[in-house]
Amino acid sequence: MDNENDVFKALADPSRRTLLDLLHASDGRTLTELCAYLQMSRFGVMKHLHVLEEAGLITTRKVGREKLHYLNPVSIRQIYERWVSKFAEPWVSGLTMLKAELESGQATERKPYHVNRIAIKSTPEMVWNALTDPAMTSKYWYNGSIRAEWKAGCPYEIRNPQGEPQAIGELLVVEPPRKLVMTWRLLSLADTAGEKPSRLTWDIEPHAELPGVTLVTVVHDDFEESPHTSRVLEAGLPVVLSGMKTLIETGSTLSD
């Protein structure tokens, strides 16, 4: 509930909503780029960005000397599931997919990776188990059970309930319980099956300020030649992370 309150308070300010709109139009902007659109001091924009980050609505990543700001769709998805979906799912879902269809090509060209982040009341070890145990992934990863030897250089598969591969790839980095890097090829959709592999990086770290809370960050990149995969994961990863959080914290699935 506290997190929901933080989100609603962050969204109440029109300048912060403008910042979210700017990042939605072109993700991964620097402070200087964002300041150009707001008639306030650099310090004022920094304060608004801090509020958005504290609410979990944006994330930041250092790239060289620059600090880039990204939308974090996980928090927005959780608010949507809690307050919107049960009232307007058919309409909102259709409009969201249409908007993503029209805008994703331009956004992908500008910044070739997407960042998702979520806080889970659990340990890194439990999160790692949820990520690598096929019995658990089948409950939140679109019914897909993951299979792998969990060594760098080894292949993996995510299989549907019929035993057919939904996604395949190679494990590039396996450092339990903190880091997993994997290539990603989505076979279950005609538009994505023929595209080149993209990459998922999972960073699992204890929260710096909240004992017993783990921060999970997932970066999807290397999709410049895989636009359909980019679009599907941009919409799908927030659902996967929300499902993982719900399963670990409550033992239930999003559909329960």
TrEMBL record:
Question: Would you say which domain of life the source belongs to?
Answer: Bacteria
One of the entry's Gene Ontology molecular-function terms is:
DNA-binding transcription factor activity
Pfam families (UniProt xref): AHSA1 (PF08327), HTH_20 (PF12840)
**Residue span, HTH arsR-type domain:** 1-91
Q: Which InterPro entries match?
A: ArsR-like_HTH, ASHA1/2-like_C, HTH_ArsR_DNA-bd_dom, START-like_dom_sf, WH-like_DNA-bd_sf, WH_DNA-bd_sf
Give yes or no: UniProt keyword DNA-binding: yes
Listed A to Z, the keywords are:
DNA-binding
UniProt similarity note? Belongs to the AHA1 family.
PANTHER family to which the protein is assigned, alphabetical = TRANSCRIPTIONAL REGULATORY PROTEIN
**What is the name of this protein?**
Polyketide cyclase
